UniProtKB/TrEMBL annotation:
Disulfide bonds join C30-C74, C46-C60. GO terms for biological process: mitochondrial electron transport, ubiquinol to cytochrome c. This is Cytochrome b-c1 complex subunit 6. It is found in: Mitochondrion inner membrane. SUPFAM superfamilies: Non-heme 11 kDa protein of cytochrome bc1 complex (Ubiquinol-cytochrome c reductase) (SSF81531). Belongs to the UQCRH/QCR6 family. GO terms for cellular component: mitochondrial inner membrane. Residues 21-84 form the Ubiquinol-cytochrome C reductase hinge domain. Transmembrane segments: none annotated.
Length: 84
């Protein structure tokens, strides 16, 4: 039998940069803007109203969708510029 030479490769132990989701950071930034704050306040107002009643068919789906729409509109302006 012939001895086979099997090379051993050791990876360098360099610290990896922690990945940050640019969409998440942009959403945090956009949530501080006046338009988003206004929509969030409307959503919270609706949520408080619904939670104060025991029997209601009202949901805050429309307010939540409006809030997320404002956030997404703000995020899409810069999101693709930040992707690598």
């Amino acid at each position: 039998m012939s001895d086979k030479f099997v090379p051993v490769v050791k990876a360098e132990e360099a610290e990896e940069e922690e990945l940050v989701d640019p969409q998440q950071s942009l959403r945090e930034e956009c949530s501080q803007k006046p338009d988003a704050q206004n929509m969030w306040a409307k959503y919270q107002e609706c949520n408080d109203r619904v939670n104060s009643r025991s029997k209601t068919a009202e949901t805050c789906e429309e307010e939540l969708i409006d809030y997320v729409h404002v956030l997404d509109k703000c995020v899409t302006k810069d999101l693709f510029k930040r992707l690598k």
